[in-house]
Amino acid sequence: MKITAFFGLLILSAAVAPAAPAAPAATASSEDLGVLVLGDTGKGTAGQQQVADALPEFCRTRRCDFAILLGDNFYNSGVKSLNDPKFKTRFEDLYAKLGIEFWAVLGNHDYGFALSRGNIQAQIDYTRLSSSWRMPTRYYSFTAHGIEFIGLDTVALPRDSRQQEWLSRQLQKPKVGHRVVFGHFPVHSSGQHGDTPYMRDTIAPQFCGQADVYMSGHDHHLEHLKTDCGVHLVLSGAGAESREVSQGNPRSLFAASKIGFSYLSRTAGSELNVQYFDAQLNRLAGFSLDKN
């Protein structure tokens, strides 16, 4: 399988290895694409290890073509250089054994804080040193099996006019198949941080009719929500720890305070499925979208 990624004027081609929460699970035999989706992974804790250890077992029976990392890849303040040991201890040692590529975007902890800044360029440059890590630039797009994926740097987005213009152009292109957007900050959330006002008020309206799914992390739980115009919101920030979620959010179709991950797959009939799993590989919920 080929993944073709687009960012600015540069085109990168990289080879990779092989509607209601009660929707039935797709089976491995019916899937022609399978994507692991994890967020807020980089804590170096027992919780991160537990979720990482579950992935090889999951991929033995389900198709896993590549993975998406939704930011906060390295706590608490990103990495300092290309030689930072966190690349090994919090990424390679845990995930490289899967033999697939991990397409990552940036979170607020990757940027760090005033007294401890993260080295964003090091995460980008690490792409050329690793057979698993993929972050070609701060924001990018690629197509896999007819599905367009758009990765955003939502931390910088509110003040990044160039990225705003790029995103607008991407979303205005004709949507041939499914279009999946992913970034760190959520649009809506029932978790500790709640909605992200800029994403909710400025970015999410642009998704209407132009994107099918927006995937995010930041809050440390698993959740499925929908926007007013019907865009599905996948919150998958439980890759290392879980936090409590508020009850009664009318937009929320499912929420669980459990460590785990999400799994996006497409069937041979072009149906897109998203399922949620905990670290014991119990299926918690799922939903489906047809090719239209």
Biggest beta sheet attributes: 9 strands, mixed
Estimate nothing, just give the exact number of structural domains. Answer: 1
**What is the chain-wise order of helices and strands?**
EEEHEHEHEEHEEEHEHEEEEEEE
Q: CATH top level?
A: Alpha Beta
Tally of alpha and pi helices: 6
Query: Helical percent range?
Result: 10-25%
User: Mean pLDDT across all residues, rounded?
Assistant: 91
Q: Could you list the spans in which at least 5 consecutive residues all have pLDDT below 50?
A: 7-24
Strand order of the largest sheet: 2-1-9-10-11-12-14-13-15
The Rg value, from CA coordinates, equals 17 Å
Shape: globular
% residues in beta strands:
25-35%
CATH superfamily: Metallo-dependent phosphatases
CATH architecture: 4-Layer Sandwich
Number of strands: 18
CATH topology, by name, is Purple Acid Phosphatase, chain A, domain 2
| Coarse structural class | alpha/beta
CA-CA gap between termini? 24 Å
Write up what this structure looks like.
It is a single chain. The relative contact order is 0.18. The chain has a single domain (2-7, 29-289), classed as Metallo-dependent phosphatases (Purple Acid Phosphatase, chain A, domain 2). The chain has helices spanning 46-61, 86-95, 108-111, 120-125, 161-172, 197-207; strands at residues 2-7, 10-15, 31-38, 66-69, 101-104, 112-113, 116-117, 133-134, 140-144, 147-151, 179-182, 213-216, 222-226, 232-236, 252-256, 260-267, 272-278, 283-289. 20% of the residues lie in helices and 30% in strands. The two termini are 24 Å apart. The protein contains 6 helices and 18 strands. With 292 residues, it is α/β, with parallel strands linked by helices. It is globular. The strands form 3 sheets. A 9-stranded mixed sheet has the order 2-1-9-10-11-12-14-13-15, with no helix packed on it. It has a 7-stranded mixed sheet with strand order 8-5-4-3-16-17-18, with no helix packed on it.
